Every structure is written in C-alpha cells, then in structure tokens.
C-alpha cells in the first residue's frame, strides 16, 4: 500500500486492479496497490494523456457540483460511484456554497467505504454507503439513504465516470431510467465518462481497460451516451468534451486534443 490509509479491511482485493484505486493513481493519489499501478501505467503507455483525462473528468464533476448547488439550488446530492476521497470532494465543493447540503456517497468498492467513513466522521450531513449501481432500487431504498435524502424534493444525482463500467447486457439505459423515474421534477442527473469520438487511440485505451478487468464498453460513442440524458432538459452547453463544459480556472491543459475522450453533461427532469 502506498498511502497512509488504515484499511486493514479483509474485503479489499489487492490481486486485481480496482477502478477506484486506478483512478486515484491517475489523479496523483496514494490509495493504490502495485496491481493498480501496473494497470495505470499500461493505460498511460497506450495513451500518454490518460492522467489528463482523469483530471478532466474530476474537474467536470467539481464544476457540475457547483452548478447543482449554486445555480440550480439543489439541497441534496446522491453521488453514485463516488470514488476515493480526492482533492475537491463533492461534499466539500457543495458545502462551500451551501453549508447545509446533504450528500450521500455510494460506491461498490470497499476501499472507498473505508476511507470515506474515516473522512466523514465529523460530518452529520454526509454519509457513504456500499451500493451497486446495477441495482439502483437497492440504493434508492437503502435505509440510510432514505433517512438523509427526501425523495419528495429535487435531488442531484451524480453518475461520474461510472456508466462506462456498466456492460451493455447490464443495460445502463435501464439503470438511468429507473433513477430518472424515481426522482421528482426539478431533479438533475449528471453524467460523465470516457467516450470514443471516433479515434483509434480511444479503442486502444478501451482495450487496456478490458485487459485489466475494468470494463469492455468504457468508450461508448457520443450518440449512445446522449441516451443517458433522454427525457431530461439538457443544460447548456450539452453533453460535450469535459473541457468545453463551462470551463473554469481549474481546468487542466484545456487545448489538448485528447479531451474529446472524456465527456460530461447534465439533464434536468422537467
Ligand atoms: C472512474 S471512478 C469515478 C469517481 C468519481 N465519480 C468521479 O467522476 O470523479 C468510478 C467509480 O465508480 C465505482 N463503480 C464502478 N462500478 C460501480 C457499480 N456498479 N456500482 C457502484 N460503484 C461502481 C468504482 O468503484 C469507482 O470508484
């Protein structure tokens, strides 16, 4: 282990790469094992801008959070596939704008729970629970989720870099539809993740994800991902490369052409 984490959690599998730990490595974090470093370096060998793509996704999530809490006045957030604590966590970005914001983090990786719980001990309005997006009703019906979030009021649902890890046969569109149907009018869905803008290197990077057991359909074409925001009012500027979504001061290397491989967008339930 390369960090100073206290996760002597037996559930943590250190023999195969974990998406959460690989993402943390790419973001310059310390919560990774050797298997994660090897997978990450294979990704960087395929596409040297891989670290930039991870940073671009993270930057988009920060901007999306500011939009939800600041402009859209959302008071509660459900962040599914939240990942390991990293600079500018959703609850921290959100609390800067609304100190009373309620945030539920959900992830299926036990390492996220171990670290999230440690981070959130002193925070009554933010919790982390174990959950799998492939069973969205189990997340929405989770007792701790229902205790903190009021589903009769608008909710901001963040699906950052997660639908890319759901296989076709697991039906990502049906998962999003289930969530969309259970949130009230005025709620938002945030989507981001890798995409194939029609470039060979996106297919090559997708192949590395697949080889390391992190998903075979990570880089879906733009049109397929637009379906995730179906029946929602898509917020300007739409589902676009993350560097084009309301760019801000903290965006890394904004003119790099690799940015077409990470997209983000937000939809509002009418
Ligand atoms: C690439 S990270 C994205 C982290 C963060 N949302 C962001 O965009 O910066 C993807 C996260 O989704 C989690 N994940 C993948 N599949 C999942 C599933 N079926 N249910 C819940 N979490 C999942 C992984 O464990 C990982 O933490």
Automatic annotation (TrEMBL):
Residues in coiled coil: none
Gene Ontology molecular function terms on file: methyltransferase activity
Stored InterPro entries: SAM-dependent_MTases_sf, SAM_dep_MeTrfase_SAV2177_type
Assigned keywords, A-Z: Methyltransferase, Transferase
Keyword 4Fe-4S attached: no
Biological process terms in GO annotation: methylation
Keyword Signal: no
Protein known as: S-adenosyl methyltransferase
Organism lineage: Bacteria, Bacillati, Actinomycetota, Actinomycetes, Pseudonocardiales
């Amino acid at each position: 282990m390369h960090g100073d984490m206290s996760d002597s959690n037996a559930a943590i599998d250190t023999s195969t790469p974990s998406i959460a730990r690989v993402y943390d490595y790419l973001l310059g974090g310390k919560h990774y094992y050797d298997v994660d470093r090897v997978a990450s370096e294979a990704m960087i060998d395929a596409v040297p801008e891989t670290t930039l793509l991870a940073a671009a996704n993270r930057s988009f999530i920060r901007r999306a959070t500011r939009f939800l809490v600041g402009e859209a006045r959302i008071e509660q957030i459900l962040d599914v596939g939240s990942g390991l604590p990293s600079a500018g966590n959703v609850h921290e970005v959100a609390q800067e704008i609304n100190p009373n914001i309620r945030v539920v983090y959900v992830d299926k990786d036990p390492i996220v729970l171990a670290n999230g719980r440690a981070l959130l001990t002193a925070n009554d309005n933010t919790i982390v629970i174990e959950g799998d997006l492939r069973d969205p009703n189990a997340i929405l019906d989770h007792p701790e989720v229902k205790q903190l979030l009021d589903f009769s009021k608008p909710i901001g649902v963040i699906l950052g870099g997660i639908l890319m890890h759901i296989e076709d046969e697991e039906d990502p569109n049906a998962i999003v539809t289930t969530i969309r149907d259970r949130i009230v009018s005025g709620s938002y869905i945030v989507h981001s993740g890798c995409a194939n803008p029609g470039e060979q290197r996106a297919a090559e990077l997708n192949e590395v994800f697949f080889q390391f057991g992190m998903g075979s359909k990570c880089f879906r074409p733009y049109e397929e991902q637009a379906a995730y925001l179906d029946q929602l009012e898509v917020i300007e500027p739409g589902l676009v490369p993350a560097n084009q979504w309301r760019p801000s001061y903290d965006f890394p290397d904004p003119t790099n052409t690799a940015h077409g491989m990470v997209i983000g967008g937000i939809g509002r339930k009418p």
